[in-house]
């Protein structure tokens, strides 16, 4: 063992001791928002790490949150180990266990194991970390998450560039504009729906992150964002209507109506410029069916999805095995998580996956922001990415299970105090 390695280990040990002493002596209450924000926007930390330190940065994603997680586990085990009794957690691990078993009938050069590893490192383990910390302290600050998202969006706008691989699409060096758009739009959604976020932080994050997302020229994440947030707005409206509280919001409706009219009038003066901008961007396919049908990206993915559907028809029950539909070819996957799971894990895999996802959604049926985030990240997974790199919805799904009220989880009614987190930063 080299001297530099020994010094690094000693430094880490000193950090552990210092952290434990601070938490115990000051009786600190740890905030799960830090773990969630760090995990979901980790690509930003990883980018800066790789600029100065050689090697893979993913160990940071696993190692950094370990300190608060271990402290939670051993300080009050009865609360922290609730994860081993959570039916939703076990449903997800049942699905992952089945996907690993499916490798036994996948082709020899399948990339399935790599997909599973990526999903666990980026989604499952950080989700479990956040679950444990929240279960222990009941604190989750959306302000912290919004600030992580704001930092990501600023870095993307300041350091991003245009490459030959992604012409006209602002991308962090070595990254992918689709993932940049996903992260920025998650930051926007958090700022729109997160409770107790200061107005200044909320507005700045929305403005900067939306600008960042637009500059990526990524269409799928934007469509998923719009649909998910409209559903969130609809849920709020229906709930207010049932409680007879809509009348209190009439003034806001009137203000919104006036704002739409004024915006429409203002836009009419720039019709030519707006039309030229849309026509010259990748977003033109969203308003022009002819351009959509002639778009190589759209037609290529549609062809891959039809092939995946054919595999599902050919192997309907158990699929081709995880990775069996996309062996060794980096981008030869359907860019649709449902079709990918169906073709590689069959209807058995789809059933287990759907059951676990439904439980996660049920756990946050009264928590609008997590409903929106789950729908938005799942929507993105339906139009881009593969089994491994569609990890955002998995992370949100695991976090969602932590918000299920204890009494409801035991079938004894609701506990609103447990359902609503402490949002203080």
Automatic annotation (TrEMBL):
Topology of the protein relative to the lipid bilayer: Multi-pass membrane protein
Pfam families from the UniProt entry: Wzy_C
Transmembrane stretches, start-end: 58-77, 89-106, 118-134, 140-159, 222-238, 250-270, 345-364
Chief location bin: membrane
Key words, A-Z: Membrane, Transmembrane, Transmembrane helix
Subcellular location: Membrane
Cell membrane recorded as keyword: no
O-antigen ligase-related domain mapped to chain residues: 211-353
Designated name of the protein: O-antigen ligase-related domain-containing protein
Source organism (scientific name): Paenibacillus glycinis
